[in-house]
Amino acid sequence: MATTLSLSSPLFLAAPPKARDVTSLGLASATPSRSTANLPCRGFFPGLVHGRKQQRCTSVVSVFGRKTKITRETVVPDPDYRLPIAILGIAGAFAYADNLLAAAPVGLLGLLLLFQTTRVRFVFDDEALEVKVGNQLQESGENVFVGGKNRWKYSTFVNWELWWPQFPILVYFKETQTKPEGQIHFFPVIFNGRQLYDTMVERAGPSETSGPNP
């Protein structure tokens, strides 16, 4: 099975929106309570303070029956430089011990991750996770390892994990959009681990074994 490795960082629960936030669509009737019921809006989360854009929730009631639609806005976790800085620190320790053979490749990896942290972004829209680049969130092009666009629908996620809880280093997920038998992806965590974990839980479902400390 092919595996991709790409170089690419708190949400708090809010109370359900009040009745005035519920938008009802339908014909006027003598029993307005049917079309303007105070429906709870599940899955509502406030946006990240600097993690870009608040999620909003809109409920729609049909005249033919009640139907709730949740609209979620885009979330972009903040960049996090701890991982590349830690790797550069390890390279420095190797150099201090005169182990240049180890210091050189580790240092290059740290510099590459540092550069990628400034430009690569995980973008969570209403239906999919997409890898984009730059502050203007430009397209990242085709995946150089397995082909296709760097965009995967949440509905195709089979499993995902975040390693490790105390200091997130790697995020893994498996999806069936690229190929039916499943495609595995690994990304270094150069984003805010708390924001990344909370958004993955909300959009792709809970992870069974891992997550950063609150």
Keyword list:
214 residues; alpha+beta; four-stranded mixed beta sheet; four-stranded antiparallel beta sheet; 22% helix
Structure description:
The protein has about 210 residues and is of the alpha+beta class. The protein is built from 3 helices and 10 strands. It has helices spanning about 80-95, 100-120, 195-205; strands at about 5, 60, 65, 120-125, 130-135, 140, 150-155, 155-165, 170-175, 185-190. Strands 1-10-9-8 form a 4-stranded mixed β-sheet, with no helix packed on it. Strands 4, 5, 6 and 7 form a 4-stranded antiparallel β-sheet that branches. A two-stranded antiparallel ribbon has the order 2-3. Residues about 5-50 and about 55-65 have low confidence and may be disordered.
Mean pLDDT, to the nearest integer, reads: 75
Shape: elongated
Cα end-to-end separation = 34 Å
Q: Helical amount among residues, as a percent range?
A: 10-25%
**H-E string:** EEEHHEEEEEEEH
Largest sheet: 4 strands, mixed
Low-confidence stretches are 7-50, 54-63
Major sheet: order of its strands? Answer: 1-10-9-8
Structural class computed from helices and strand pairing = alpha+beta
- The count of helical stretches stands at 3
Note the beta-strand portion: 15-25%
Backbone CA Rg: 21 Å
The total strand number stands at 10
